[in-house]
Design brief:
Number of domains: 2
Strand order of the largest sheet: 3-2-1-4-5-6-7
CATH class of the largest domain: Alpha Beta
Radius of gyration: 21 Å
Helix content: 40-55%
CATH superfamily of the largest domain: Glycogen Phosphorylase B
Order of helices and strands: EHHEHEHEHEHHEHEEHEHEHEHEEHHH
CATH topology of the largest domain: Rossmann fold
CATH architecture of the largest domain: 3-Layer(aba) Sandwich
Number of strands: 13
Largest sheet: 7 strands, parallel
Structural class: alpha/beta
Distance between the termini: 9 Å
Shape: globular
Length: about 375
């Protein structure tokens, strides 16, 4: 079968769907990667063996004329490339790609990997998005959600039929690639690490304030932030604002990295104070590597932590509570931190192993079968 994976960036396919591409190829399927061009587009062909198909797509905004044009671009690609099924991720492929797939007669399987600002900020744009979801989600063969809170929210709003709504443990995590390092004595200062794009909705502002509070109490603590800037729209932190925050000297900004595992390995605790997630890949990777976690008690994040067992949950948008939980973790003995890390690894192995995700996708693709 010809299977198309459709996402809003080539980087997203490379970073989050590489294992799915390989699993589909090993099952004998041809994989098309459909996404806007970026630095990772060529790697999808040269290193993953996909056929890359570019599409022009603005990730932000709800201009109806541009969105109608995007639907037409999806339709033209689906008619030309003739995939047997399209696997779609992120809001615009989920909505406009699904409408185009319906018009082109191509079955679609969607993945709601997090609701972003649609349910966090209630405004005209979010109401339009809900209406578009309701229109588009009449048509998919299956819609996967990454946590049950999101699935229930869509069902309560009657945005789709219960029969097509299914659950996945996020994107899953490769527990062979991400595994605990051999036990060694910690040589450096106690280190907290947050991994996320520099967006307000990831809790970056609260992280900086919590870092100040933690370091005032324990100045030798190291607090790091790993993730790229995203200044598009009004949700990304502007470069000049980030630089102003960094001048306080409480957070070490690491920028973007293709070797996230190495940064996780050097951290004592991984932190994500996000406002809402699907199921955050970075926390799954941290869990698989045997790291204790501090994250918010919100949909998507709380699935990764059994409070007091493999980490601590904090209140959302509350820097003081985040600081308290970080200080609690810092005060734990090395033995207790090791116990929490082991519990994280066990959770990753039993609940979040990517084989669970890959097997579900392989089954749903087999259900649909070839069109030709």
């Amino acid at each position: 079968m010809r299977v198309a994976i459709v996402i809003n960036t080539s980087w997203n396919i490379w970073n989050f769907r590489r294992s799915l591409v390989r699993a589909l190829q090993q099952a004998g399927h041809e994989v098309l990667a459909i996404a806007p061009p970026d630095d990772y587009s060529a790697r999808l062909e040269t290193e993953l063996g996909c056929r890359y198909v570019p599409i022009l797509m603005e990730n932000k905004g709800t201009n109806p004329i541009k969105d109608a044009q995007l639907t037409k671009r999806f339709y033209d690609i689906y008619k030309r490339e003739k995939p047997d099924v399209v696997l779609q991720y992120t809001i615009k492929p989920n909505i406009y790609g699904t409408l185009a797939a319906r018009l082109a007669g191509v079955p679609s399987v969607n993945n709601v990997s997090g609701l972003g600002t649609v349910f966090i900020i209630r405004n005209f744009v979010s109401r339009v998005a809900l209406g578009l979801y309701k229109l588009a989600f009449r048509f998919p063969h299956r819609v996967f959600f990454q946590n049950d809170d999101d699935r229930q929210l869509f069902l309560q709003h009657k945005l789709l039929a219960p029969a097509i709504a299914d659950l996945l443990p996020g994107s899953g995590v490769d527990t062979e690639k991400f595994k605990p390092a051999p036990a060694t004595e910690s040589a450096g200062p106690f280190t907290f690490l947050m991994i996320a794009r520099v967006l307000y909705e990831k809790g970056v502002e609260e992280y900086f304030e919590a870092a100040r509070l933690v370091r005032e109490a324990a100045p030798d603590t190291r607090v790091q932030l790993l993730g790229g800037l995203d200044e598009a729209g009004n949700i990304g932190v502007k470069r000049e604002v980030l630089e102003q925050w960094l001048q306080a000297g409480h957070v070490e900004y690491l920028g973007h990295s293709d070797n996230v595992a190495e940064h996780i390995r050097r951290a004592d605790v991984v932190v994500l104070p996000s406002y809402r997630e699907g199921t955050p890949k970075t926390l799954l990777e941290a869990a698989a590597m045997g790291k204790p976690i501090v994250t918010t008690d919100v949909p998507g994040c709380r699935e990764t932590v059994v409070d007091g067992v493999n980490g601590l949950l904090c209140q959302v948008r509350d820097a003081a509570d985040l600081a308290r939980k970080m200080q609690q973790m810092r005060a734990l003995s090395p033995e207790r931190l090791t116990e929490m890390g082991r519990a994280s690894r066990q959770l990753a192995e039993t609940k979040f192993d990517e084989r669970i995700v890959l097997d579900k996708y392989l089954r749903v693709v087999a259900e649909i079968g070839p069109r030709r």
